[in-house]
Design goal:
The protein is α/β, with parallel strands linked by helices. It has two domains: 2-256, 3-Layer(aba) Sandwich (UDP-N-acetylmuramoyl-L-alanine:D-glutamate ligase), CATH 3.40.1190; 262-431, Class II aldolase/adducin N-terminal domain (L-fuculose-1-phosphate Aldolase). The chain has 13 helices and 20 strands. The chain has helices spanning 16-26, 54-67, 81-91, 118-125, 136-143, 153-161, 205-218, 223-239, 258-270, 327-338, 352-360, 381-392, 421-431; strands at 2-9, 30-41, 46-51, 72-75, 98-100, 131-132, 167-174, 179-185, 190-196, 202-203, 249-250, 287-290, 300-303, 306-310, 313-317, 320-322, 344-349, 365-367, 401-404, 413-418. The strands form four sheets. Strands 3-2-1-4-5-6-7-8-9 form a nine-stranded mixed sheet, sandwiched between helices. Strands 16-13-12-17-20-19-18 form a seven-stranded mixed sheet, with helices on both faces. It has a two-stranded parallel ribbon with strand order 10-11. Helix 7 (205-218) packs antiparallel against helix 8. It is elongated. The two termini are 34 Å apart.
């Protein structure tokens, strides 16, 4: 994947082009850049701005657009009308998702767009936006309307949407319960996504958010999924912020773990399955995803606790951790040795009606009989290892499902296997 960042250069690498390149690298994607302005700033103060010439900006954009397949574009600092009009001319015909981060003022106090350019920004840049991500202050400036009890977030977002943005996300709305929320206005829906608040001033969180958002959208996530992803990513970048200079902290971009993100997203969807509580066994559920060629359960990501049933709801009790699962991770490790393409698994409650659905869906299903378990097989992880080996012994292709009907004091169980958590969810949608 190739992502293009159009914005200003920040020599402190806390924000701007440099920050976006760090974020994209953390996502294991290739970052392209077009610099609109050179700034001098650090963690304590903002110095000066020198915009790129029209000629060099136009040449930068032509160079990357003509040579690379670009999967997504983020627009940050644009500074003046000349820059704005060039960007509009070069991007207006592209069918590529674009996130606009309407940066107006630096955290350290510098103005990042000329006042005289605001009208052109509204006319030429906002209509390019698949999503625009103003914070509360930026939204008020763009809409020329204060957010208060009379003028709601929705009203201000609608004003911005009417300027041409397909979707509007107003970020960083502080709530009374130490939560911080993002208000989202799509074409036909509106909603709020809340999260925990970290009360500290930092440099770079806005850039982190918009860069993570364009990555998620380019991965074909929905707007809601993308906002949740960007919010979680930004929260972690703030939590891990470091005091590198003499002034405010700089957000820290840790290496992106695709395995962690994919499994986390899958678990979020799993717990929302209709009446999923009916499929949680007495021993509860774990959902796992492994690195390529896992050598032990320490190479397999799972929930350190379980997905547990709470009345007619299910909740995730515990955090994702490598080595967090023993039983289901051992089952996955065993099957992966014979079928290395199988990297994910989840266990659900054994029910005859579920087995019937599995068979009708034409999935490959096999089983083993725990009553035949040799006496010398130890109780614990070796039991599941013996059972999985027994079930797949004569198979030439990997199974979708392995089950057993239990034994005295041993609960029967169904385990669903797949290449990825997404594949597992597709299989579950047919059987639960």
């Amino acid at each position: 994947m190739n992502l293009l960042s159009i914005g200003g250069s920040d020599p402190s690498s806390g924000a701007g082009i440099q920050s976006d390149v760090k974020t994209f690298a953390g996502f294991n994607v290739y970052g392209l850049t077009a610099i609109t302005a050179i700034t001098s700033q650090n963690t304590s103060r903002f110095g000066m701005v020198e915009p790129a010439s029209q000629k060099i900006l136009k040449s930068q954009l032509e160079s990357v657009i003509s040579d690379f397949k670009i999967d997504g574009i983020k627009i940050g600092m644009v500074f003046n009308s000349q820059v704005i009009k060039i960007i509009h001319t070069k991007l207006k015909k592209l069918k590529i998702p674009i996130v606009v981060d309407p940066v107006i003022k630096s955290t350290t106090g510098g103005m990042l767009i000329e006042k005289s350019a605001m009208v052109d920004f509204q006319k030429y840049i906002i209509p390019l936006a698949t999503v625009i991500t103003p914070n509360k202050y930026e939204a008020e400036v763009l809409a020329k309307t204060k957010i208060n009890s009379k003028n709601t977030l929705e009203k201000v977002a609608m004003i911005i949407q009417e300027m041409g943005a397909k979707n509007v996300v107003i970020t960083g709305i502080e709530e009374e319960n130490k939560k911080i929320s993002d208000f989202v206005l799509e074409k036909n829906t509106k909603y709020t996504i809340s999260g925990n608040q970290i009360t500290s001033i930092n440099h770079g969180s806005g850039c982190n958010y918009s860069a993570a958002l364009i990555f998620a959208i380019a991965e074909n996530k929905t707007i809601q999924e993308s906002v949740k992803f960007a919010k979680k990513f930004t929260y972690n970048s703030i939590k891990n912020a470091e005091k590198i200079g003499d002034g405010i902290t700089i957000t820290n971009i840790t290496k992106h773990d695709n395995i962690h993100v994919e499994l986390s997203d899958a678990i979020d969807k799993f717990v929302k399955f209709k009446e999923i509580y009916k499929n949680i066994p007495e021993c509860q559920t774990n959902f796992v995803y492994s690195k390529q060629k896992p050598k032990s359960t320490k190479d397999i990501l799972g929930i350190s606790g379980r997905v547990v049933k709470a009345g007619k709801k299910v909740i995730v009790a515990g955090n994702l951790a490598y080595g967090g699962s023993k039983h289901i991770a051992t089952a996955l490790l065993t099957i992966n040795k014979k079928f290395p393409e199988i990297n994910s698994a989840v266990n659900i409650k054994y029910q005859k009606k579920t087995i019937s659905k599995i068979e009708k869906s034409r999935m490959l299903v096999c089983s083993y009989d725990r009553t035949n378990e040799p006496k010398n097989v130890k109780i614990g992880s070796s039991t599941i290892e013996w059972g999985i080996k027994k079930a797949i012994k004569d198979l030439k292709v990997p199974p979708d499902v392995i089950f057993h009907e239990g034994d005295f004091g041993k609960e029967p169980m169904i385990i669903v296997f797949g290449n990825t958590p997404k594949v597992i969810l597709k299989k579950l949608s047919k059987i639960v």
